[in-house]
Prior knowledge:
eight-stranded parallel sheet, TIM Barrel, alpha/beta
Amino acid sequence: MTETIFRNAQIVLPDEVIQGSVRIEDGLIAAVDAGGSVGEDFEGDYLIPGLVELHTDHLENHYRPRPGVYWNPLGALQAHDVQIAGSGITTVFDAVRIGSDPETPGGMGDHVEVLIEAISTGVEDGRLRADHLVHLRCELPTPDVLADFERFCHLPLVKLASVMDHTPGQRQYQTVSKYVHYYKERMRFSDAEMDAFIQTRHDEQALYSARNRAAILKRGLEVGIAFASHDDATPEHVSESVADGVSIAEFPTTMVAAEQSHAAGLAVLMGAPNVVRGGSHSGNIAATDLAREGCLDVMSSDYVPGALIHAAFMLPEVVEGVSLPQAIRMVSATPAKAAHLSDRGEIVAGRRADLVRVRMHGDMPVVKGVWRQGRRVS
Length: 378
């Protein structure tokens, strides 16, 4: 039996913060006690559960750092892993897009398989600091997404999938003008090319979206994958998600969609950068507004790994009525539960000893140590 004790820590429990100690045995939390005089002195720093990250695009950014430039996949994974663990994230769902993507002409193609193989290799040979799982982001209005899903959904590391539809004029891009503003300069289109691009998106949605959604959800639920909706905006979107057995509402774009998702028992997920920046980069609903209304359940780092812990400590300061334990649950226990992971996310006896030591420097949390299953990884 291996034993480790941390003492003199501000321990963030599910519903309170206590000054005390935590004892770890064989990778699990064995006991949590007030006080305690034996063990590594945390000098009053916070001890929080390891963060659980459901949606990060960061691996793809490391793998494709510039348009047309693809990095060594294991090198990209290791760089991503260092930043994830150093940000206090002990469980990460690496998001991999399947289905042709308008932002990536020609789609990701075989690069999806390359990334998933790299994650599997990294997990199998023990080179990774964090616990890596796979989140398949399924772009529904595409001809190849269902075939890609069938290729990967049975793999042991694939535990989460999101059903997405980025067709202009709905969901994330509620107006066509917003879509044009986002894509025209990015894709360097003329007016005529932009019009043709939008028409193609609408044609593909009509042809593929509904049937792909039904087939992917049916197959995924059969193999035990948790599902997230994406950018729900209307009561109809929420009703569809509930009927489909979805457990997570990723980035709802309106207050009504967020409120109804939360009321229906879906875990409402918003981006931590939205909290840190004070609003959505795409002009949709602010995460802090959802928190004030009591319908923010989960935060995700999305495109900035360090934003997750920053937002968790920032939210109680900017939203009255949100406590630190509540905010920490949004980045640990609640995402773990939503992804069907019952063994982590809380500092409770019997849970995995995935833990993070945090010291406050002014209003900025700084990660001072990270442990996964009792072993220090950062």
